[in-house]
Amino acid sequence: MADKRLEVIRSKRQERLAELARTGPVIVGSLARVGVRCGKPGCRCARAEPHTAYVLTSKVKGKTKTVHVPVGMVEEVRSWVEQHRQMKRLVREISALGEQLIRLHVSASRDARPSPLSRRQSPPEHS
């Protein structure tokens, strides 16, 4: 029965690895839409109607780093961010499946060992 479970887990792990191999370009961070003011006195942004801009934020050595994303790249960058999330999910799943394989192997090894009680010799008979 353990052999069947091992095979199922190995199969799932192979599926996840294949999925990971198909992952496209990735980027670490979050894409955010922000309102910006251009500074021109007569512009609508001076009247509390800010322009829309996009930024990618990420942590580098504990500090938030922000990069402007051109409007023409927003959908592409959004896809990269999503691919990164997908990749992280797959890596967590692959890791969990590996842990399950280890636990099953340990369990099977324990089951295969004779118990300490069965190793005891019976007491010598008195004549």
Q: Strand fraction band?
A: 15-25%
In sequence order, what are the helices and strands, one letter per element?
HEEEHH
Note the main sheet: 3 strands, antiparallel
Low-pLDDT stretches are: none
Termini Cα gap: 47 Å
Question: What is the mean pLDDT?
Answer: 89
Task: Assign an overall shape.
Answer: elongated
Q: Total helix count?
A: 3
Give the strand order of the largest sheet, numbering strands 1, 2, ... along the chain.
1-2-3
Number of domains: 1
Rg over C-alpha atoms, rounded to the nearest angstrom: 29 Å
Instruction: Assign the structural class, choosing from mainly alpha, mainly beta, alpha/beta, alpha+beta, or little secondary structure.
Output: alpha+beta
- Give a count of the beta strands, DSSP E runs of length 2 or more: 3
Helix residue percentage: 40-55%
Notable traits:
127 residues; 3 strands; alpha+beta; elongated
Q: How would you summarize this macromolecular structure in one to three sentences?
A:
The protein has 127 residues and is an alpha+beta fold.
Can you tell me about this structure?
With 127 residues, the chain is of the alpha+beta class. It has one domain (2-111). The protein contains three helices and three strands. The chain has helices at 2-21, 74-112, 116-119, and strands spanning 30-36, 51-60, 63-69. The protein has a three-stranded antiparallel beta sheet, covered by helices on one side. A hairpin with a 2-residue loop joins strand 2 and strand 3. It is elongated and about 110 Å long. It starts with a helix and ends in an 8-residue tail after the last helix.
